[in-house]
Each structure stands twice: as structure tokens, then as C-alpha cells.
Amino acid sequence: MNLQLSLERESHAVAKRSHTYGDHDIVEALGLRESSAAETLVTRYGERAYRLARRITGNGQDAEEVVQDAFWTVVRKIDTFRGESAFGSWLYRIVANAAYQKLRGRPYRRHDISLDEVLPLLDESGRHVAPAVDWSPRLDDPSIQVELRLALTAAIDELPAGYRVALVLRDVEGRSNAEIAETLGLNIPVVKTRVHRARLFLRKKLTDCMSALEATTAA
Q1: DSSP per-residue string spanning 149-199
Q2: CB-based contact 23:71 (threshold 8 Å)
Q3: CATH code, 3-104
Q4: What is the pTM of this model?
Q5: What percentage of the chain reaches a pLDDT higher than 70?
Q6: Residue 109 and residue 37: Cα distance in Å, rounded?
Q7: Could you tell me which of 207, 208, 105, 118 has the C-alpha nearest to residue 163?
Q8: According to CATH, what is the number of the domain 115-218?
Q9: Residue 159's pLDDT is what?
């Protein structure tokens, strides 16, 4: 039989099993050390695990290494899974921990966002020092949309890893605060704080971008 055709059939079979297998079946297959269990695990969770690792590390190559290490850990330590949380959350926590470990090997990056960075400046009477900018009349301008998109991408990349992943899980993937807390091994108030400050940080960066654009247009 043609080798490529054989591999394609095997890949299709694994993908089909990953859709018919539930988490319980995958855990049982891993525990029994079935030959196809690891492939099914990767097919079912590989893409989502990579997205999580990519959002924490901010680097595709690092994310690939993180996922490989994390999945190897899952295979080796499957007997430690007690079912006290969802299997997916347990796996994502291993991925997140591996990603944070990867970050520790890099030059220092800050781990927190202070309120002073994200809240507007107020005078002694509590009024805004700088006037608020109303963006709405210009949001339909394609050139403005391009600038804002670039500014938003840069601002997300600038976020500390813990804030970035919490924000993306909440606002992009639509996870609940409880799900994020379970995935990242945090408590719910910490998740809420990180998401809130990340949103304020992005808003401030976009405000700065729009102010600069307004100044350029006025000139």
C-alpha cells in the first residue's frame, strides 16, 4: 500500500476517534498506554493548547516547544489526574505553567500593571486633566481602522503575559471568569482584576493613538 495513503488514512482515523472519544475515554486510553491515545490527545487539544501557549509566550517557536513539553507531561502524569476538575482545564493549566516557565528564562519583563498607568489623570477637584477624545465620528474611516488595529495589536503584545492571556481568554474566546481561574490556577478576583486593568491599559493606548492622529490631522 502507498505509504502516503496509509498515513493519510491513519491521520483521518485518529481525527475521527478524537471527535467520537470524550475526555473520559482519552484519560482511560492514556492510562492504559494505548498506542493511539497520545495522537488522539494532540488532535483534540493541540490547536487550543498552542493558542494558549502562543498568547502567553508571544512567540510561535516557544509555543510549539511549550506544547510538546506539556503534552509529554500529560502523558507521563496522567495517573495523577483525579477528575476533581475538567480534564481540559487540567491540561490547560499544565500548558500555562510550561509557558510561564519558558518566560522565566527570558530577560526580565514586568508582571503587573499599576492603576497609575491606566487611569486618567485628575486634578485636585477630581476633574480630568486632559479633555476626553470622542473617537466615534472617525471610526468608519478605513485609515483610522488600520492605525487602531496596529495600535491594539502592539498594546496587547505589550501587556504582561498573565494579563494578556486573561484578557484574550475572556474577551476573544468568551471564557467565564471561573473557567479562566481554573485554567490558570488563579482565584476569580485576580482574574477580574487582570482583565479589568488589561482593558483599561488597551483603552489608554488607543486613546493615545487617536490623540496622536488628531494632532497630525490638525497640523
Answers
A1: HHHHHHHHHHS-HHHHHHHIIIIIS---HHHHHHHHT--HHHHHHHHHHHH
A2: no
A3: 1.10.1740.10
A4: 0.65
A5: 70
A6: 37
A7: 118
A8: 1.10.10.10
A9: 86
